[in-house]
Amino acid sequence: MDTADSAHATSSSQAAAGSNPLLDPRDLRLPRIADPCVMVMFGITGDLARHKLLPAIYDLANRGLLSPSFSLVGVGRRDWSDEDMRAYVRGSVGAHARTPWHESIWEQLAEGMRFVTFSSFEDDEAYERLTGVVAELDASRGTSGNRAFYLSIPPGWFPAVTQRVAASGLVDDAPGSWRRVVIEKPFGHDRDSARELDSLVGRIVRPDDVFRVDHYLGKETVQNILALRFANTMFEPLWNQGYVDHVQITMAEDIGIGSRAGYYDTIGAARDVIQNHLLQLLALTAMEEPSSMDAAAVRAEKEKVLDCVRLTRHGVLDLDATTARGRYVGGFQGGVAVPGYTEEQGVPQDSTTETFAAIRLEIANRRWAGVPFYLRAGKRLARRVTEVAVVFKQPPFLPFDPSATAGVGANTIVLRIQPDEGITMRLASKVPGTHMELRDVLMDFGYGASFNEESPEAYERLILDALLGDAPLFPHQREVDLSWRILDPVIEHWAAAGVPDSYRPGSWGPDSAHDLLTRDGRTWRRS
Ligand code: BG6
Fold first, then answer.
1. Which GO terms describe its molecular function (predicted)?
2. Ligand 1 contact via 184 beta carbon (within 6 Å)
3. Which residue among 152, 213, 264, 277 has the greatest number of ligand 1 atoms within 8 angstroms of its CB, and so is best to mutate?
């Protein structure tokens, strides 16, 4: 939406709210415009900034959702002038922005860009320069002392950065203005380190001013899980152990680790995406109805369900039976030769990092007792797909000839997070003809077909929310802590087990992942 559109949307939605006393203007699609502020981005030259953060900032400006005074200070080791940074951001926006190019929007944004060269994150003198640049922007662009520090850097640098940012006075309380810190995962590498990280950040800003980014929560389809469950009547009565056989949560990628060996080899699949994205999907799928959509109410329910997650299978802890891990070997994918994980540039030969992880979990509460949740995530799998599949039990009785139902599987609701965003229901139906034969059919809701609007990128939503101080889409430290509680024993178990199992590129992971379900008399979807 450009600025003119957004002005129109404001007046029309206000008018609509005004004429209907039942409508709350907050629920309408009023543009939510962020306060004037300075965003200081540590890690601006990294992949995430180039591919996602900078294009999202431009897209927000283009949609009229940033204040015209919004200013961006890049911090990095390059010897760049402000002009160099503008050229770099322009390149990233040109290549990755979602919305069309508008020179006037770009010029307004570019005017507020500055770059501060740091010889390292321990360069005290550079923090002084940064302080000066932020003060200059406050004065020249009227950013009113509002500051967001975006830390898109490895967590190992957090102590150095937070200490110096605090010492520089940049985050000191100032009446009438806000100071926020936005941090990217990984939130630590285990429960203890996550707690340390939290206490470091807690030294510079209040807990409510820390915004932890799990970009899956910014995806429309992930937010839609709560809409599907709690804005409809027909799903919730079935959403429990009485009707659900099991749940499969899959995040499959068809790409390898690319140039990210430095990051990925210290992390692995479980820490990279299960600790955050997949456990968040599990929490949203399994939580009780919150009293409202307020951050605190939603968070409380997510925390409750995460607290009930168990690694045991029928009460017994046997991680060899309930987890699987693998790493891709070299081969062909889509007709193209691809290297194995240990042949990727930068991966040590003796690496034991997994590129695939699967875990069977149970939830010890009345709603889910006895219903396994199977989570799997991996690189170089058969195709890119993220989905939550809720697989229902077989009907207790089928009044049909057994031959008529031979082609019928389990009713399934699939929440398709990406691609082809939408929801599919699989149900049995009569095959047209003179005799009774049943077969599975799909009922499909697709975002593309039902809505005209293109979904914003997750980072647009999250950056805007952080600038607005809106917390619901950011995991709280307690959720992070509970997720590590679940994962720590698995990672420790794997650490003692040596090299992961192998799997072919373009497959659905190692045999051990299939055994994990076979043991329960089930199979993965799409395998
Ligand atoms: C990131 C992981 O959080 O999510 C990456 O660090 C992964 O390894 C990426 O590739 C996938 O994100 P998306 O939005 O493409 O599913």
1. glucose-6-phosphate dehydrogenase activity; NADP binding
2. no
3. 277
